Amino acid sequence: MDKVKKEILISKPEIDDRVQSLADEISRDYEGKDLVLICILKGAFVFMADLIRCLCIPCRVDFVRLASYGTGTVSSGSIMITKDIETPIYGTDVLIVEDIVDTGLTLSFLVDKLKEKGPRSLKVCVLLDKKERRQVPFNAEYVGFDIPDRFVVGYGLDFNEMYRFLPDVYVIQED
Ligand code: IMP
């Protein structure tokens, strides 16, 4: 099917355990609040779907889609919103759900944009964090796994739109 070599970095059972722990923490922190989870399409849709089903508090969900110019394994600096949220978030407690933070450019951009809409609080939950790749300072409040500077796919993450369906997270090597 392809010439890309891949090996498992994080297995589905490990992901399931960590997602449950994150959801427990979020359920405790947001009890009694007006929680709106905002999923960044496309990569975070699998994580978001699992995360909300592990929560034990009510929440609303919405989706945003961002485009950054560049394909393959290199992200670029220019970001734009191609699908905005539809839920009014003024006065709500917003939690952005993202698959991975790499340079930090995407999440810094989105956090600034959503702050303009006046949420009461705004935090970020990422499944994967490549801390050593930051180009701008950025810390997510909830992090599933710190990972090394390798390109990963699976569990919603893609390489040129491939591999999102894989249940585990894999490291790939481009030939
Ligand atoms: P950042 O703006 O550099 O932090 O990049 C965030 C976006 O880059 C993510 O939403 C992903 O779409 C993409 N990305 C960064 N690293 C990876 C990776 O290892 N696999 C798949 N996508 C990645």
Q: Topology, please?
A:
Layout: E1 5-10, H1 12-29, E2 35-41, H2 45-54, E3 60-68, E4 79-83, E5 93-101, H3 105-115, E6 121-129, E7 142-146, E8 152-153, E9 169-173
Parallel strand pairs: 2-3, 2-5, 5-6, 6-7
Antiparallel strand pairs: 1-9, 3-4, 8-9
Helix pairs in contact: 1-2
The chain binds inosinic acid (IMP).
The site of inosinic acid has 15 residues, from strand 5, helix 3 and strand 8.
Based on secondary structure, the structural category is: alpha/beta
Arithmetic mean of pLDDT: 94
Distance between the termini: 14 Å
Number of strands: 9
Largest sheet: 6 strands, mixed
Low-confidence stretches: none
Rg, nearest Å: 16 Å
What is the H-and-E element order?
EHEHEEEHEEEE
The share of residues in helices is 10-25%
Bound molecules: inosinic acid
Classify the beta-strand content into a percent band: 25-35%
Q: Which of globular, elongated, flat, extended, rod-shaped describes the shape? A: globular
Taking strands numbered 1, 2, ... along the chain, how are they ordered across the largest sheet? 4-3-2-5-6-7
- Count of DSSP H/I helices: 3
